[in-house]
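Minimal example, chain plus 5-S-methyl-5-thio-alpha-D-ribofuranose.
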Amino acid sequence: MTETRPFEALSVETLASRLGENEALTERIGSDAGQWKVREVGDGNLNLVFIVEGDKGAAVVKQALPYVRLVGDSWPLPLKRSFFEYHALTRQEARAPGSVPAIYHFDETQALIVMEYLSPHIILRRALIEGRELPNIALDIGLFMARTLFRGSDLSMAAKERKADLALFADNVELCDITENLVFSDPYFDASMNRHTSPQLDGLVAELRADRNLKVEAQRLKHLFAANAETLLHGDLHSGSIMVTDTETRMIDPEFAFYGPIAFDVGMLLANFWMAFFSQRGHEEKGSRDSMRAYLLKVTAETWAIFRAEFSHLWRTERTGMLYQRSLFEDQGDRLGSEQALDHMLSGIWTDLLGFAGIEVHRRILGLAHNADFETIADADLRATCEAKALRFGRHIAVNRRRIHSIDEVNNLAALIEQESGI
Ligand code: SR1
Ligand code: MG
């Protein structure tokens, strides 16, 4: 049953009485709501997340709040982000089956989604901080990105269907606005919500903000983000939006979904692996992280290789949309023409993903929304050393993205910067 009353935030105390008659929940976790155990576990920047356990099982209830949780009610944020998350999850499930949690129920007025409780999964970022070398993430995430990004684009979809979807997600204005400001602009001037490890990083931060080429590049990337409505993006694909076990990987939290450039999701994701790499020095109290560092660079190379291979496979077998139509190439016996176009597309994605990755690194160290990879390093000098390396790496790949041709080149650079001493 869907509630008809106006939006009201749930709490641990009220959840069972509010949702005790909800069939999606009672079917899965048991109908004796008086026995339900409810925990609020949300540690993200925006929403409430509850785990509800009954005698038959458990489920997750995620509810949007009318403001940014990280900042408070001084920053209102519309509830409709829950609508976009729900619609993005259904499309991701159709395009990359098994890659997202199952959805049991959506209530638009209450801005809540009831979904599968993933257990014993943990957030990927936490696993990487703990130094866990997960064997499947490159394969699982590479496939997820290739399938969702290819199948959500004009390479695959019927034009009418894609344009309708583009119109639907175009209304996710406020979440795009967060990305447009927090990712592409705020890090490059002294915006009011910014913070960084100070005074250790003050000199480097001033240098970055005075770097004209970097600022121009960040704005060119912002332009691309805003104007290139290429595919349905996850929109916030970092290691905090992925849940893992040793053998399973699920993508969560696509509330920032909208139509944008393919390279954005890929660049954000790889940036988070590179940040995990630079943060390892700060997590060596229980032993060397040399092996973890090598693992993380291998993961970036494998993720990109899997993405390329699957995207190429889909290009050759599922290119049913209006772009690069088969009637111009394969049907004319011109397979080489089709391969040339594919190569062109992949090299464009590569160049742009380096830019998006570079600025994602910057915003996590200079902006409002930092990440736990660095934040959990208690010693400020050590944290600043790790962050400074990541900042220099980010600047290099963003500014030089047109001159960097392989992932090995990027990973060699990361390894070189990691070996340097001091800030
Ligand atoms: C105010 S929201 C800050 C960040 O949290 C989300 O996870 C997105 O990454 C956003 O940029
Ligand atoms: Mg999130």
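The mean pLDDT is 97. The pocket of 5-S-methyl-5-thio-alpha-D-ribofuranose (ligand 1) is lined by residues 45-46, 68, 70, 178-179, 182, 236, 369 (CB under 6 Å).
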